[in-house]
């Protein structure tokens, strides 16, 4: 059955892992305390701070303690939805100020544009919040790439190594799973997508194989018609 939709991961797939770990995370760690103190009473921020307290099991934590928790989660690369949402808000300020530009590999930019022109529907699934995803592509070094994508999915759809998450995304996309190809650099994510019925292609930009999946070193090597 021919591929109709492409679902792509970001970190390590369309974008360098180093951009996330060496640029975005340090930026969030530096600016998050000031951001939380300045905006703690705003409903959107207060909602996420309440979620942090609940997740940490510290219902009475004051703002400074919540900041301490968040910085610990950043250091541990914790996949917390509330942390991701707050990081996204901090990054939004950085992108708006021109202090951040999203990294997207040139081969990914070229392929995504070509696939869009050919009528494929493009989607993103990343552990980063939907807002953070839109910022990386919307304020990228290659310009605003958001018009290429039909929708975005994050951890609110479920963990990336859980097949049920991909079943939920398939339902949201609205076409059979076998007509969707998922692109990622993580074997466990590819395994989960395949368990949900999707086609898979692994990205190993430094070379090597992602066991059990067709593996390429760049988007230029992906042949959708051959899947």
Verbal overview:
It contains eight helices and six strands. With 227 residues, it is of the alpha/beta class. It has two domains: 5-16 and 103-226, Rossmann fold (3-Layer(aba) Sandwich); 19-96, Transcription Termination Factor Rho, Rna-binding Domain, Chain A, Domain 1, CATH 1.10.720. Strands 3-2-1-4-5-6 form a six-stranded parallel β-sheet, sandwiched between helices. The N and C termini lie close together (9 Å). 37% of the residues are buried. The mean pLDDT is 96.
Explain briefly what this protein structure is.
By secondary structure, the chain is α/β, with parallel strands linked by helices. It has helices at 17-39, 43-56, 63-75, 81-96, 106-117, 130-138, 163-173, 187-195; strands spanning 5-8, 121-125, 149-153, 180-184, 199-203, 215-216.
